[in-house]
Amino acid sequence: MARQPLVPVRAGVFREHPALAITLGYLFVSAIGLLFSWALFRRFGVNFFLFADVGDFLMSAFREPMTFALAGSAVAVGWVAARLNRIEERWLGEPEDRGRLARGYAWLRDRLGARFWPMIFAAGYCFLFIDDHADREADRIRAGESDRVTVLTGAGERLERVQMGATSRFLMFYDPAGRRVEILPQEAVARMLLAAPEPGSDDDGR
Questions:
Q1: Which of 173, 145, 143 is nearest to 157 (CA)?
Q2: Nearest of 14, 19, 23 to residue 61 by alpha carbon
């Protein structure tokens, strides 16, 4: 009898236990957010995890809106790969009905872990998307095209910086003039001023 693919079995479990599906889905989106933060700051020589707390891991899904779109598209990629895998299994037919070529191909599929291909394709898609998006965002930050802020520190300094991100305890900025990353404890920052877009500019939605 033909072996059942792994993904449909798991989908059946999720239908029976929707709370489990929601929990795992949230963890999946949070993991994507964490990987993006790590990939972005790695391009500036900063280990994001050294400045993150447990709460940042749980909230990482909401720090970057693209994580939800990426998670949804990754699920779609996995679903398509699972469907193609199932079609291929039907094409191969039952083991006793296979010809020599089909038996050899089925043997190779089993050795290569074909049942796990949908998850591998989805994971590979996520890593490629994150890597590309991190490159683009890093280029925008270096060019000063990301959010520019005026930082007023508790010591009375006034800093013109590009905002990179934040954790529950630290604020991260990029200094275009010095071409360096600055990480400040939140208690060291008195105020942050974000410039409003000019009327009629592309940033105000017109």
A1: 173
A2: 23
